[in-house]
Amino acid sequence: MEERKENREETKMDMVSLLLRPELPNVLKELPTARFKVTRLSQILGTDAVFTLRGLPYGKVQKLRQSGDPDVQIQILLQGCVDPDLKDPALKERFGGATPVETVKRMLLAGEIEDLSREVERLCGFRRSTIEEVKNG
């Protein structure tokens, strides 16, 4: 019994030591990013239309998800899209959107908005399995 208690305490210390290692980033300072090609836009433009997306901090994601905004997917995309800047006034002028949300609706298909928004959520750790059960033998 005493040996099990020591093993658990040793495991706790080992885990703390692992979490203190410098290669583990502070996710508030180093949010994950990824690049995604939008197939339809790439075909139309004749070149890769690549969007650079970044994960959002926990508080921002929760606030958006709980906002009740019917355009929550677009809001997540607007917050998580690093490049292109979907809030750029030139895009607003080109597509005639009164707001960035309206501009995105006029520029991207519903499925493209959903796919890009989901990728932002995946970068935040949502919509994918991030943990697995450890079986003690």
UniProtKB/TrEMBL annotation:
Gene3D superfamilies in alphabetical order: 3.30.2220.30
Taxonomic lineage per UniProt?
Bacteria, Bacillati, Bacillota, Clostridia, Eubacteriales
Q: Which Pfam families match?
A: Phage_TAC_5
- The protein depicted here goes by the name XkdN-like protein
